């Protein structure tokens, strides 16, 4: 949630910040682009740290970075400082989602994963509507600096809660939850693995001594060499480029065209956020239900072993209904609530493919989608001025349709690719 909230709470304030700092909207959009570019690169480091050293230390590091950046932005006076601090904020915030996927892989089986990932998306998709509303209220009533004071208070409070209550779930450190967590891994709440997860992962092994090494961002590249993971990531990236570009432009275009104030510009994000949040939760439940239905139809008794069965139609199970959603999203490009259906599907499938390196796999996904979204947001304003908003939105609607051949290829060949990878 902090990754998307930190990004979207800022959007209604682009216009007043540009006026106070005497810079153009194009330069302000570059602060959004830089945020997205760093958001694509930083998780490659963070995911590797989380997979080798645990989830909790990484969370604490990320929240410290966010707290420092937000405190700095609450007191800034120059655009160049804003640009640098937004990149620092992104370095901290962007990894929270990939580490969350690592936690899900630690504590769930294949048959439970859809609901958990749907819950993650419930919070991450609430932020695109909640963030601009909060940002609009704060910018209109108290001034744009209070956006960053609000984020500082929220981040600092969450940091204290994480340090005291967040249990470590990395199985190299706590096994199935039976190994005691020490030092920075300690919390007031001990992790308890479910019976099904313990059975699927085996008994806890003695804790191994872990050597420290500098995080290697290139560890995410082998994920991109796996065709199934690559196709899933590209599908999600096309969605993200479309949504992020459109939502970045929405507030500034509404203020310019309809003469809205900052609060009203924030309120226009509510419909997509509500629909997205409901859709994420419902889709997660649907994915788990469809998984169980397919398992029973094929006579597979042990749900925990499905991810390791070469002949199980994992791609068809996860992506059922994807073609229809692609067409609807292309025809109603600004209907963001429908787009999130796919996000839950593809995120679950990426985790299915990479249960042993889940945080790193999501880092690879972040790399592709955030670099694409950064390019999209940087080019959208010049594109509107060159050909008009109507044709610009039409181009992004066409971009959505590029998902169709990717979905077809993944459903047709995904099982064979998994078999060869075995």
TrEMBL record:
<feature type="transmembrane region" description="Helical">
    <location>
        <begin position="58"/>
        <end position="77"/>
    </location>
</feature>
<keyword id="KW-0812">Transmembrane</keyword>
<dbReference type="Pfam" id="PF07690">
    <property type="entry name" value="MFS_1"/>
</dbReference>
<dbReference type="GO" id="GO:0022857">
    <property type="term" value="F:transmembrane transporter activity"/>
</dbReference>
<feature type="transmembrane region" description="Helical">
    <location>
        <begin position="322"/>
        <end position="339"/>
    </location>
</feature>
<keyword id="KW-0813">Transport</keyword>
<feature type="transmembrane region" description="Helical">
    <location>
        <begin position="83"/>
        <end position="104"/>
    </location>
</feature>
<feature type="transmembrane region" description="Helical">
    <location>
        <begin position="146"/>
        <end position="166"/>
    </location>
</feature>
<keyword id="KW-1133">Transmembrane helix</keyword>
<feature type="transmembrane region" description="Helical">
    <location>
        <begin position="390"/>
        <end position="410"/>
    </location>
</feature>
<feature type="transmembrane region" description="Helical">
    <location>
        <begin position="21"/>
        <end position="46"/>
    </location>
</feature>
<dbReference type="InterPro" id="IPR020846">
    <property type="entry name" value="MFS_dom"/>
</dbReference>
<keyword id="KW-0472">Membrane</keyword>
<dbReference type="GO" id="GO:0005886">
    <property type="term" value="C:plasma membrane"/>
</dbReference>
<protein>
    <submittedName>
        <fullName>Itaconate transport protein</fullName>
    </submittedName>
</protein>
<feature type="transmembrane region" description="Helical">
    <location>
        <begin position="116"/>
        <end position="134"/>
    </location>
</feature>
<feature type="domain" description="Major facilitator superfamily (MFS) profile">
    <location>
        <begin position="1"/>
        <end position="415"/>
    </location>
</feature>
<dbReference type="InterPro" id="IPR011701">
    <property type="entry name" value="MFS"/>
</dbReference>
<keyword id="KW-0325">Glycoprotein</keyword>
């Amino acid at each position: 949630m902090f990754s998307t909230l930190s990004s979207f709470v800022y959007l209604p304030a682009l216009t007043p910040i540009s006026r106070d700092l005497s810079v153009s909207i194009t330069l302000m959009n570059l602060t959004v682009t830089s945020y997205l570019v760093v958001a694509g690169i930083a998780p490659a480091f963070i995911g590797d740290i989380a997979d080798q050293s645990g989830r909790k230390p990484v969370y604490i590091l990320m929240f410290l970075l966010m707290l420092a950046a937000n405190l700095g932005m609450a007191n800034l006076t120059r655009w160049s400082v804003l640009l640098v601090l937004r990149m620092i904020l992104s370095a901290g915030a962007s990894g929270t989602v990939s580490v969350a996927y690592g936690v899900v892989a630690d504590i769930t089986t294949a048959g439970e994963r859809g609901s958990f990932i749907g819950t993650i998306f419930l919070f991450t998709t609430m932020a695109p509507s909640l963030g601009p509303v909060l940002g609009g209220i704060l910018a209109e009533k108290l001034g744009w600096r209070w956006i960053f004071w609000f984020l500082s208070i929220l981040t600092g409070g969450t940091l204290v809660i994480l340090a005291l209550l967040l249990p470590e779930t990395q199985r190299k450190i706590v096994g199935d939850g039976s190994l005691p967590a020490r030092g920075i891994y300690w919390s007031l709440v001990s992790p308890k693995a479910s019976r099904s997860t313990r059975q699927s992962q085996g008994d806890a092994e003695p804790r191994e001594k872990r050597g420290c090494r500098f995080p290697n961002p290139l560890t995410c590249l082998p994920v991109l060499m796996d065709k199934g993971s690559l196709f899933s990531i590209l599908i999600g990236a096309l969605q993200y480029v479309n949504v992020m570009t459109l939502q970045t432009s929405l507030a500034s275009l509404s203020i310019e065209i309809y003469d809205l104030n900052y609060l009203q510009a924030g309120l226009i994000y509510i419909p997509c956020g509500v629909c997205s949040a409901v859709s994420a939760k419902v889709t997660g439940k649907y994915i788990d239900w469809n998984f169980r239905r397919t398992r029973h139809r094929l006579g597979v008794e042990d749900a925990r072993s499905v991810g390791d069965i070469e002949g199980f139609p994992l791609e068809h199970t996860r992506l059922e209904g994807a073609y229809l959603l692609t067409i609807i999203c292309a025809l109603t490009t600004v209907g963001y609530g429908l787009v999130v259906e796919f996000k839950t599907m593809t995120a679950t499938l990426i985790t299915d493919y990479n249960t042993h390196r889940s945080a790193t796999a999501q880092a690879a996904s972040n790399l592709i989608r955030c670099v694409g979204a950064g390019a999209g947001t940087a080019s959208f304003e010049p594109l509107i001025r060159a050909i008009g908003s109507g044709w610009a939105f039409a181009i992004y609607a066409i971009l959505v349709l590029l998902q169709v051949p990717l979905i077809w290829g993944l459903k047709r060949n995904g099982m064979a690719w998994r078999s060869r990878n075995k």
